[in-house]
Each structure stands twice: as structure tokens, then as C-alpha cells.
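Exercise 7b. C-alpha cells:
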């Protein structure tokens, strides 16, 4: 029976929906994480009687048709790039972006990746790096024994160097934005890479030309709403159960039909 296949596609779709929701909940405390949602479309229809077709020799037409759907398919798991709340940490190298933009990270193979996770550290040479030791762009090296590290809303990095009483700007952290942020591809470690769908990376300076601002001593939290995720999880579970019930009902109907031939 067609109902078996149709309900099976529904169960597979809801299983994927639960997987997406579970990933959102698992990353509830992941810095800069952006939640995903599963989107679906109906499959091709079997047109038993096409709407608008001629219904008689007198030229009348069918006002409605008979269309049997083939089920559901997954078309995407788009990522919501809405702003997450900021959490103050007090750490000098913890940075959060308010508004548009991503931090640009230089990878060991010479390519670039992009992140909203501003949990940065210093490596053994004084460079500002991410948790994997990859430098933030442009590369900034903090002089040894310097004090008073400050990063303003534009990303300018200032320190007071040994033998001096005044602050000196030693570099500027840039931001990168994209025409279609949802088109970025996640690659793990809170990083994204650009794709043809995201558009060309546009490097710029915070607070200027539509870019966001940089907040020192803060981190952006995940934009996951627990209440919403839990309600979506319950809805997905119930939809899965109903599709399973359809399979059970179709099986019982087939058993009844088979019994007629015994």
C-alpha cells in the first residue's frame, strides 16, 4: 500500500527533525552557536484525476481533482543567525560581537574560517589566537611584559609597553560579513567557511559601514530558546508516533485483505 511508503517518509523526516533539535539543545552553552531548524516539502503527487480535466462529453470540467501525495522530503536545515545574549566574563581576550560580522581566523593551510566565538588566548609568541591556536586576523602580537590590554569597540588593541606610561595601539581586529550569512557552511570548532551561497567575504572595521561592535570582556551565548526547542521536540515526537500509527493501520488493513483469500 502507498500509505506504508508515505508514512515511512514522515517518520524519517521527524527523526531528522529530532536530530536537529537535539543538536540545538546539546549546544545550548556553546559560545556563538547558531541554532538550526529542519524544513520540509511534500513529494510528487499521483494525479488520479487532474483538476480542470474534461469530465464529460458535454465539455464539463472537474472542479476538483484526485491527488494522492507521496509523502515528505527534507529540503534544508537552515541556521538562524540572530543575535545571542552577551555574557560578561571579565577576561581581557574574551570578545563578543553585537550586530553584523564574524571574526576571521587564519587556518594552518592558509585558508580562512569565520566565527562568532570570541574566546581568544595568547600563544607562546604573544599572538592572539583561538582555542585551536589559529591566529585572529589581522595577526596581532602582544609585546612581552606589556600591561593594560584594552580592545575598544572598533577592535583596536592597545597596551602599555615596558618603560612607558601611555597606551599604544598595536593592531586592530577586523570583522567580516556576508550577504547571506545562512549560506555559510559549518565545519566544527564553532567555525564556518564561505560558500557560493554566502557570497564573497567582506572585510571591514567594527562600528563602520554596517558592521557590528566588539565588546571586550564578554562572550556571545547560543541563540537557542530552550522552551521553543522542547515544544518542537514534543511536536516532532507526536508526529513520529502518528506516522507509526499509520503504518500499523495500513498493516492491519493488508492483513484483513489477505484473510479474505484464505
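Sequence design result:
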Amino acid at each position: 500500500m502507498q500509505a506504508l511508503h508515505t508514512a515511512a517518509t514522515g517518520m524519517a523526516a521527524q527523526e531528522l527533525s529530532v536530530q536537529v533539535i537535539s543538536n540545538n539543545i546539546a549546544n545550548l552553552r556553546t559560545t556563538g552557536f547558531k541554532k538550526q531548524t529542519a524544513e520540509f516539502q511534500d513529494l510528487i503527487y499521483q494525479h488520479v484525476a487532474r483538476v480542470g480535466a474534461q469530465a464529460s462529453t458535454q465539455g464539463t470540467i472537474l472542479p476538483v481533482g484526485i491527488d494522492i501525495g507521496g509523502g515528505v522530503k527534507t529540503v534544508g536545515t537552515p541556521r538562524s543567525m540572530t543575535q545571542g545574549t552577551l555574557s560578561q566574563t571579565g577576561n581581557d581576550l574574551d570578545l563578543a560581537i553585537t550586530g553584523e560580522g564574524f571574526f576571521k581566523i587564519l587556518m594552518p593551510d592558509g585558508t580562512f574560517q569565520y566565527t562568532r566565538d570570541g574566546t581568544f588566548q595568547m600563544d607562546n609568541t604573544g599572538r592572539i589566537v583561538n582555542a585551536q591556536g589559529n591566529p585572529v586576523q589581522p595577526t596581532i602580537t602582544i609585546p612581552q611584559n606589556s600591561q593594560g590590554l584594552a580592545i575598544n569597540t572598533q577592535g583596536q588593541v592597545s597596551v602599555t609597553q615596558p618603560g612607558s606610561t601611555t597606551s599604544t595601539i598595536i593592531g586592530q581586529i577586523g570583522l567580516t560579513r556576508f550577504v547571506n550569512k545562512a549560506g555559510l557552511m559549518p565545519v566544527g570548532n564553532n567555525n564556518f567557511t564561505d560558500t557560493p551561497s554566502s557570497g564573497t567575504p567582506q572585510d571591514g572595521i567594527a562600528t563602520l559601514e554596517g558592521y557590528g561592535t566588539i565588546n571586550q570582556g564578554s562572550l556571545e551565548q547560543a541563540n537557542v530558546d530552550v522552551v521553543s526547542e522542547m515544544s518542537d521536540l514534543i511536536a516532532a515526537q507526536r508526529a513520529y508516533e502518528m506516522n507509526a500509527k499509520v503504518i500499523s493501520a495500513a498493516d492491519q488493513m493488508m492483513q484483513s485483505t489477505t484473510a479474505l483469500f484464505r
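Instructor comment: The first strand starts at residue 39 and ends at 42. The two ends are 20 Å apart (CA to CA).
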